[in-house]
Amino acid sequence: MTLDQLKKGQMAEITGYTLGNAAYRAKLLALGMTRGTQVKILNIAPLGDPFELAVRGFHLSLRKAEVGVIKVKVLEKGVVK
């Protein structure tokens, strides 16, 4: 499952990335979006783009195509660290 498939309020743990642009993947890793990081979908714009995420104590807005490369597993309950 990828992060763009989640709904507002859902939490997930990053499990990896789909094949694609290595430079963009490096940018996400530099932002702290590493394997095992918990992410919460705070908001999704009315037309589905962009996504507002809570990750590692800060808010991050990414386009739908950008969150579509992030593989996740959904968490039932948890706290974003």
Task: Pick out its properties.
single chain; 81 residues; alpha+beta; five-stranded antiparallel β-sheet; 5 strands; 16% helix; 37% strand; globular
- What would you give as the CATH superfamily? Ferrous iron transport protein A (FeoA)
Mean pLDDT level: 89
- The secondary structure category is alpha+beta
CATH topology (fold) name: SH3 type barrels
Rg to the nearest angstrom? 11 Å
How is the biggest beta sheet arranged? 5 strands, antiparallel
As residue ranges, the low-confidence spans are none
Total count of helical runs of at least 4 residues: 2
Reading the helices and strands in chain order gives EHEEEHE
Helix content: 10-25%
CATH class: Mainly Beta
Number of strands: 5
What would you say the CATH architecture is? Roll
The domain count comes to: 1
Strand portion: 35-45%
The termini sit apart by: 21 Å
Shape: globular
**For the largest beta sheet, what order do the strands appear in spatially?**
4-3-2-1-5
Describe this structure in words.
The chain has 81 residues and is of the alpha+beta class. It has a single domain (3-75), classed as SH3 type barrels (Roll), CATH 2.30.30.90. 16% of the residues lie in helices and 37% in strands. It has a 5-stranded antiparallel sheet with strand order 4-3-2-1-5. A hairpin with a 2-residue loop joins strand 3 (51-55) and strand 4. The mean pLDDT is 89.
Short description:
This protein is an alpha+beta fold. Helix content is 16%, strand content 37%. Strand 2 and strand 3 form a beta hairpin.
